[in-house]
């Protein structure tokens, strides 16, 4: 990381956060971003768990903490799937994504999931490095997974049953 870690506070995603999350979705994913309806359906879906990261650095006034990231997880009863992790561009490389990912992995452990799966664009080197640092392994490539860009994606897995020691923990978040 090149910048100082940004202190954040995680809390459950609420409908009042939708406008900000959708703003971040468009900033990060452009034409492939979720819509309001898609986000509402996803949040209401069975086995879903979504959180937002609020900046907690004291620079925004008393009681005001802007949402600088969000993440979501789906649990099917055996494994979890990372649905999304998004971090505002202005705070990227400050540990917010790492904090969100660790929260998803911790939640997966609480649910007693056997593994955590995710997909990541093959050209997203920073995200791939973060996932591998935490202990995810590449399983294969999904061709033309990301639409409308038609980018390929790596499928990755973190085996929770085999990972008694938590890789990447103890690092500066």
UniProtKB/TrEMBL annotation:
<comment type="similarity">
    <text>Belongs to the acetyltransferase family. RimI subfamily.</text>
</comment>
<keyword id="KW-0963">Cytoplasm</keyword>
<dbReference type="InterPro" id="IPR006464">
    <property type="entry name" value="AcTrfase_RimI/Ard1"/>
</dbReference>
<feature type="domain" description="N-acetyltransferase">
    <location>
        <begin position="8"/>
        <end position="161"/>
    </location>
</feature>
<dbReference type="InterPro" id="IPR016181">
    <property type="entry name" value="Acyl_CoA_acyltransferase"/>
</dbReference>
<dbReference type="InterPro" id="IPR000182">
    <property type="entry name" value="GNAT_dom"/>
</dbReference>
<dbReference type="InterPro" id="IPR050680">
    <property type="entry name" value="YpeA/RimI_acetyltransf"/>
</dbReference>
<keyword id="KW-0012">Acyltransferase</keyword>
<dbReference type="GO" id="GO:0008080">
    <property type="term" value="F:N-acetyltransferase activity"/>
</dbReference>
<protein>
    <submittedName>
        <fullName>Ribosomal-protein-alanine N-acetyltransferase</fullName>
    </submittedName>
</protein>
<keyword id="KW-0808">Transferase</keyword>
<dbReference type="Pfam" id="PF00583">
    <property type="entry name" value="Acetyltransf_1"/>
</dbReference>
């Amino acid at each position: 990381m090149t910048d100082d870690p940004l202190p954040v506070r995680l809390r459950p995603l609420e409908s009042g956060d939708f406008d900000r999350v959708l703003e971040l979705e468009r900033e990060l994913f452009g034409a492939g971003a979720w819509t309001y309806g898609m986000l509402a359906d996803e949040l209401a879906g069975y086995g879903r768990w979504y959180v937002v990261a609020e900046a907690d650095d004291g620079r925004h006034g008393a009681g005001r903490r802007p949402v600088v990231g969000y993440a979501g997880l789906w649990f099917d009863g055996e494994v979890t799937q990372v649905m999304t992790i998004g971090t505002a561009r202005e705070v990227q490389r400050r540990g917010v994504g790492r904090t969100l990912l660790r929260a998803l992995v911790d939640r997966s452990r609480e649910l007693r999931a056997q593994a955590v799966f995710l997909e990541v664009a093959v050209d997203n080197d920073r995200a791939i490095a973060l996932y591998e640092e935490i202990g995810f392994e590449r399983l294969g490539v999904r061709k033309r997974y990301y639409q409308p860009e038609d980018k390929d994606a790596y499928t990755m897995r973190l085996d929770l049953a085999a990972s008694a020691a938590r890789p990447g923990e103890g690092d500066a978040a």
